[in-house]
Design goal:
The complex is a heterodimer of chains A (460) and B (152). By secondary structure, chain A is mainly α. Helices cover 74% and strands 0% of the residues of chain A. Chain A has a domain of 200 residues. In chain A, 57% of the residues are buried. Classes of the chains: A mainly alpha (460), B mainly alpha (152). At the A-B interface, helix 2, helix 3 and helix 19 of A face helix 4 of B. Chain B: It is found in: Mitochondrion inner membrane.
Chain lengths: 460, 152
């Protein structure tokens, strides 16, 4: 664990001591080497739960894929931000990369935490760099509102979590995940127990986000700069899913009845956000709402609490992280050229950027869950487990899949096909950096088809 | 509002001055280059190509100064080239290829294949000996001590 955490912390001196000319080269190289080292976590040779353990941090098959995704994302974020941050003053560039790195450090410690309070502190700590990135480097005035929504939605959800955790600590004597799964359930009166259950989960439901408390997401994703959108979509949403899966172990047997409204809300959210996507004019907003839909399916899979639900949730989280981040990068390439996110302004891009059209096509296919990509496998597992819980859910999930396919197709056709307007024929050609960025997103998704057991978690 | 005015005003004043002087404040691109003329004539406002847009990019495409621009560093082609090389080498050749090979050759992930083999072995063994494939009780019932009913 430390073999990745210490190099990530050492990225701070790298950022501040490198000469301005080589700053981006060095940080990209350093973070790629960290990503390489993080692949050693994927070794899970025994059936025991936790590996790479020290007193405070450990990995297990749930956190490992998310940790590797986090470590992989930092070089991608640096690559994506290089163009729009580079012209600024050097100290501002260093600050920006430092914020990304501090986010990375907190995320590694959050996913690796074995004690729930440490996870909680890191969960909250990730809010600060993200808030700074959104409000300082966002491009429109709405970024202030977006930052406020982002911060206060998550805080409002997580303060009850703190109370719930302290209650659990007092009752069980420990909050170590290794021990808590074997402890006695909390003894409270029925109302108190219900509120405690809700307190444990609401923070993560807001983070996922569950439809109903999702309003912060379109704002934050749209107003954030590209690296902010990438890390939000790829990793920070998964913090919610990860937290839920950890807490679920301790919340039985109350979850059997109490999960009902949240599952229904999540499934309804897939339909609603999918329909909203079909009516969007803003490209980033479309991708943001599609994230809400996908994470609604993940929330449903987790709340069902079956092995297939959990496995499907992890698979979908990883696959969605990569696909959604790729789409945000592609949207950013359009934004950097036209300085607009309006879809009708940048149509018919296939004619002028043919290779990029391939990336748009593949990313959209991943988004609409094309087999054999893991996006479909995760969705299918969740849909199947929901069906076995209640056959009626097939109506919602089936319709949701259909709408997902429609808006992904809509996004592709609007941006790539059709006549190319005259005002964009003079756009800059695509940079090698941008092609590399998208391929580094898409190649792992395709490679995961060959070894999906890395993502199955500890349930299957 | 003020920032927008302050950005427009220098450009406006420069435009008036240049048209008054009858010369254009152009960058060093030679007049003969067709692309340079096309860029200048295509622009709606008669802004000098050396002016920067809100992101600090020059209005002239970086591909003009450096046709092999890779997108990493605008002004220094040496840094741009080496950044590209390192990013590709470490990103693809090292992490994806070497890392991917490492992952491919990892031993039995989570002992799933072992579990399958062991199950088949045990089934074969138990079927040969006539034992049931699995006993109903996980623990031996005689070892479980229950409190008698009626006690508190």
């Amino acid at each position: 664990m430390l073999k990745v955490l210490i190099p990530t912390i050492m990225l701070f001196p790298t950022i501040w001591l490198t000469s301005p000319k080589w700053l981006w080269t060095t940080t990209t190289a350093h973070s790629l080497l960290i990503a390489l080292t993080s692949l050693t976590w994927l070794k899970w040779t025994s059936e025991t739960g936790w590996t790479s353990a020290n007193t405070y941090l450990a990995t297990d098959p749930l956190s490992t894929p998310l940790l590797v995704l986090t470590c992989w994302l930092l070089p991608l974020m640096i690559l994506a931000s290089q163009n729009h941050i580079n012209p600024g003053p050097i100290s501002r560039q260093r600050t920006y990369i430092m914020l990304l790195t501090s986010l990375q450090t907190f995320l590694i410690m959050a996913f690796g935490a074995t004690e729930i309070i440490m996870f909680y502190i890191m969960f909250e700590a990730t809010l600060i760099p993200t808030l700074i990135i959104i409000t300082r480097w966002g491009n429109q005035t709405e970024r202030l509102n977006a930052g406020a929504y982002f911060l206060f939605y998550t805080l409002a959800g997580s303060l009850p979590l703190l109370v719930a955790l302290l209650l659990l600590q007092q009752s069980a004597g420990t909050l170590s995940m290794l021990v808590l799964q074997y402890s006695q359930p909390l003894q409270l009166n029925p109302w108190g127990h219900t509120i405690w259950w809700a307190g444990c989960l609401i923070a993560f439901l807001v983070k996922m986000p569950l439809y109903g408390v999702h309003l912060w997401l379109p704002k934050a994703h749209v107003e954030a700069p590209v690296a902010g959108s990438m890390v939000l979509a790829a990793v920070l949403l998964k913090l919610g899913g990860y937290g839920m899966m950890r807490m679920m172990v301790m919340l039985d047997p109350l979850s059997k009845e109490l999960a009902y409204p949240f599952i229904i809300l999540a499934l309804w959210g897939i339909i609603m956000t999918g329909s909203i996507c079909l009516r969007q004019t803003d490209l980033k907003s479309l991708i943001a709402y599609s994230s809400v839909g996908h994470m609604g399916l993940v929330a449903g899979g987790i709340l069902i609490q079956t092995p297939w639900g959990f496995s499907g949730a992890i698979i979908l989280m990883i696959a969605h992280g990569l696909a959604s981040s790729a789409l945000f990068c592609l949207a950013n390439t359009t934004y950097e050229r036209t300085h607009s996110r309006t879809m009708v302004l940048a149509r018919g891009l296939q004619v002028i950027f043919p290779l990029t059209a391939v990336w748009w096509f593949t990313a959209n296919l991943a988004n609409l869950a094309l087999p054999p990509l893991p996006n479909l496998m995760g969705e299918l597992m969740i849909i199947t487990t929901l069906f076995s819980w209640s056959p009626w859910t097939i109506l919602l999930t089936g319709l949701g899949t259909l709408i997902t396919a429609s808006y992904s197709l809509y996004m592709f056709l609007m941006s790539q096909r059709g006549p190319t307007p005259n005002h964009i024929t003079g756009l800059q050609p695509f940079h090698t950096r941008e092609h590399l960025l998208i391929t580094l997103h898409l190649i792992p998704i395709i490679l995961l088809v060959t070894k999906p057991e890395l993502m199955w978690g500890w349930c299957y | 509002m003020a920032s927008r005015l302050s950005r427009i005003w220098p450009t406006l004043s420069r435009v008036r001055l240049s048209s008054a002087l009858g010369s254009r404040c152009v960058s060093q691109t030679p007049k003969s280059s067709a692309s340079g003329a096309a860029v200048a004539s295509d622009l709606q406002q008669p802004v000098s190509p050396a002016a920067q847009d809100s992101h600090g990019h020059a209005e002239v495409s970086p591909f003009e100064k450096n046709p092999d621009f890779h997108g990493f560093h605008h002004h220094d082609s040496f840094v741009d080239e080496w950044n590209m090389r390192l990013a590709f080498f470490l990103g693809i050749s090292v992490t994806i290829v070497v890392g991917g090979t490492f992952i491919h050759y990892l031993p039995d992930h989570g002992m799933r294949q072992w579990a399958r083999r062991e199950a088949e072995r045990l089934i074969k063994l138990r079927e040969a000996e006539g034992f049931p494939l699995m006993t109903e009780n996980y623990y031996d019932p005689s070892t479980i001590v229950l409190p008698s009913s009626g006690e508190e």
